[in-house]
Amino acid sequence: MLGLFSITLPGSICLADNRVAVRPQTTSEQSYQRVTEKEIQEIVRESITDNMPGELGQIKIKDIKIYPAKEVVLSPGKLSYQVFAQRGSNFLGPTYFDILFNIDDRLEKKVRAMAYLEAIEKVVVTRKPLGRHQLITPNDIISKEMNLAKLPSNVILDPSQVIGKRTKAIVDPYTPLTAAIIELPPLVKRRKLVKIVAETENLRVTTLGEARQDGREGEVIKVLNTSSQKEIYGRVIDANTIKIELY
């Protein structure tokens, strides 16, 4: 299913406003309007450059192909168009658009265009090999300009988003870091002694416990109440505290 170009592209734009010259032409049988391949490419190009969000970096349009015809021949009348993009497009790599040509506000023809888009942006890459569960420091990473169209969508651009986190597995040098291969280190490690807290509006009870699982902030883990020797579940509050939810 196609959706209107989602980055605030106007729904219907007069060709004259886009400086695309389309002049009525006459044959012995009828008059008509022609939109050339170059003019269609310019429609797509302007739609992209005028509406692409800045966070995608320096957008480069490498190629625009028009399907199936190289030009469009239309009836006489007031000519306008709409540009649609495939729903869910991230506007990197091959990106498909439908251009709907209207005469007197009625749809007359539709053509499809494919634009190959590149965005050059600095991404976070490893400076050297990193071991499994290795904490990432500023000395472990560098920023390198790369083409986002050739990288996973969850690649990390901001070094502050990786410093202090750890790798999930071994990472080779000069690997672009993504959200899928890093994680927060656990605040609480298995077998660590912790404080178990249970509280209501009028009551607060604390006791000593032992973590049965690693846990990050906000995660629910199993913990042993060392007084009762019962295993219960609680939420990690900080490196030393597990909170039991009372209902």
What is the element layout, followed by pairings?
Blueprint: E1 2-4, E2 13-14, E3 24-26, E4 31-35, H1 37-51, E5 58-67, E6 72-74, E7 79-86, E8 93-103, E9 106-126, E10 141-147, E11 166-167, E12 182-183, E13 193-199, E14 204-211, E15 220-225, E16 230-238, E17 241-244
Parallel strand pairs: 13-17
Antiparallel strand pairs: 1-7, 2-7, 3-4, 4-6, 5-9, 7-8, 8-9, 9-10, 11-12, 13-14, 14-15, 15-16, 16-17
Structural features, described:
The chain starts with a strand and ends with a strand. The strands form 4 sheets. Strands 1, 2, 5, 7, 8, 9 and 10 form a 7-stranded antiparallel beta sheet that branches. The N terminus is likely disordered. It folds into 3 domains: 118 residues, Thiol Ester Dehydrase, Chain A (Roll), CATH 3.10.129; 64 residues, Type Iii Antifreeze Protein Isoform Hplc 12; 52 residues, Roll (SH3 type barrels). The chain has 247 residues and is mostly beta strands. A hairpin with a 4-residue loop joins strand 3 and strand 4. It is built from 1 helix and 17 strands.
Rg, Cα atoms, Å: 29 Å
* Number of strand elements: 17
- Main β sheet profile: 7 strands, antiparallel
Regarding quaternary structure, what we see is single chain
**CATH architecture grouping of the largest domain:** Roll
**Which stretches are low in confidence, meaning pLDDT under 50 for 5 or more residues running?**
1-28
Q: What string gives the helices and strands in order?
A: EEEEHEEEEEEEEEEEEE
Tell me the structural class. mainly beta
Head-to-tail CA distance between termini: 45 Å
**Mean pLDDT, all residues:** 84
Shape: elongated
CATH class of the largest domain: Alpha Beta
Give me the CATH fold name of the largest domain. Thiol Ester Dehydrase, Chain A
Share of β-strand residues: 35-45%
